[in-house]
TrEMBL record:
Keyword Ligase: no
Residue ranges crossing the lipid bilayer per the database entry: 40-61, 67-87, 160-178, 199-217, 229-251
UniProt keyword list: Membrane, Transmembrane, Transmembrane helix
Protein name listed in UniProt: Fatty acid desaturase domain-containing protein
GO biological process, one term: lipid metabolic process
Ranges of residues in domain Fatty acid desaturase: 71-334
Upper lineage: Bacteria, Pseudomonadati, Pseudomonadota, Gammaproteobacteria, Pseudomonadales
Database matches in Pfam families: FA_desaturase
Organism: Pseudomonas fluorescens
Length: 351
């Protein structure tokens, strides 16, 4: 039988698998020790529900204060962007069924609240399927979740557009498809992924941008824009929605996707090898991005080895876990990934 000796193997060498198992065992043991030391960590469901309650309540309070004119819009946006970063972490943990696993009503209620607070993302129930596949095939060409966050793409206007506005990117990508059948298929896919929450979310954003661009152009021409009572009410609602929920999520999502797409390697990663799937990015100058994605660049690599720990426990294990990861050869602060389109190999990808 004629076989191609150059074909990549999908089976990890025993020594490398042993190394992965050792990393997982050490971090798991450390997190278990923390659970014994701090008994409160045993109340995982209560912690998750409390973080959700505080985050959602905080968004309602800041939104109310903004509407009443008691705080400026920028402050509401910043606070809610921080709160939605907590909610994103909760959703990620819920996808792995880390809260209320045996209580489906509570579990699905938390999932729904995550979707309402972050309406620009596909439903968490749909994301669960994509995310489980991401863990199995992280960095390979079937990893749709990585592609959504721009991993593997060359840096340029197209990647920045996708980071900032995934909906417009999806539509533009569909319009440039080679055939009409493909254009229609991709357009329907974008609409399906965003229905119904995302369509309302992006609709508010585009109405907001369009209206304020229109009034600005008219002001340059010395004209005044007059609206009907219904149109005026619509703009007030849209303005409030943008400040309270849309703009905070655009900031949070940009920061998360920027960090996530660069800590994940893509395109030449050996399947199911967490030693190659991610790196740790924890340089001090990344803090403006890390702030709005709950230190994702520093801690997400831990999750690829130990899935069962919730987000707050990953923060607690990070100092110990970083030493274990470094000893195992996991990369830290490999900023050359920007030039390599997130390839694991240090060789430049082909044009």
């Amino acid at each position: 039988m004629n076989t191609d000796s150059r074909a990549p193997s999908t089976t990890l060498p025993k020594t490398e698998q042993d190394l992965i198992n050792d990393v997982t065992q050490k971090i798991t043991q450390h997190s278990n020790e923390l659970r014994k030391r701090y008994r409160v960590l045993g109340f995982q469901n209560a912690i998750g529900a409390s973080v959700m309650a505080v985050s959602v309540t905080g968004m309602i309070i800041t939104g109310t204060l903004y509407i009443k004119g008691l705080i400026p819009g920028w402050l509401c946006i910043v606070i809610n962007a921080l709160l939605t970063s907590f909610i994103h972490e909760l959703e990620h943990d819920l996808i792995h069924r880390l809260y209320f696993r045996k209580h489906p009503v509570a579990h699905n209620l938390m999932m729904l609240l995550c979707w309402i607070a972050r309406p620009g993302m596909p439903s968490p129930w749909l994301r669960r399927e994509l995310h489980f596949h991401h863990h199995k095939e992280s960095g390979t060409h079937t990893d749709v979740e990585a592609w959504i966050t721009t991993s593997g793409s060359k840096w340029g206007a197209k990647r920045f557009l996708k980071l900032i506005d995934g909906f417009v990117f999806g539509i533009v990508n569909a319009l440039f498809a080679p055939t009409w059948q493909e254009k229609i298929r991709l357009t329907v896919k974008v609409l399906r992924l965003n229905a119904p929450m995302g369509l309302l979310y992006w609709g508010c954003w585009y109405i907001f941008l369009g209206y304020h661009l229109y009034t600005w152009v008219n002001s340059l021409m010395g004209l005044t824009v007059e609206l009907s009572a219904a149109a005026s009410l619509l703009i007030q609602v849209v303005n409030a929605a943008v400040v309270i929920i849309v703009a905070p999520n655009i900031i949070r999502q940009f920061c998360l996707f920027f960090i996530s797409s660069n800590i994940h390697y893509f395109g030449d990663v050996m399947p199911r090898n967490p030693l190659q799937q991610t790196q740790v990015m924890n340089r001090w100058w990344l803090w403006p991005f890390q702030l709005f994605c709950f230190n994702f660049g520093s801690t997400h690599c831990i999750h690829h080895f130990v899935v069962k720990d919730p987000f707050y426990l990953r923060q607690m294990t990070a100092p110990f876990a970083h030493k274990v990861l470094a000893d195992a050869g996991v990369r830290f602060n490999d900023f050359g990934t920007y030039k390599r389109s997130n390839r694991y190999s240090f060789t430049q990808p082909e044009a």
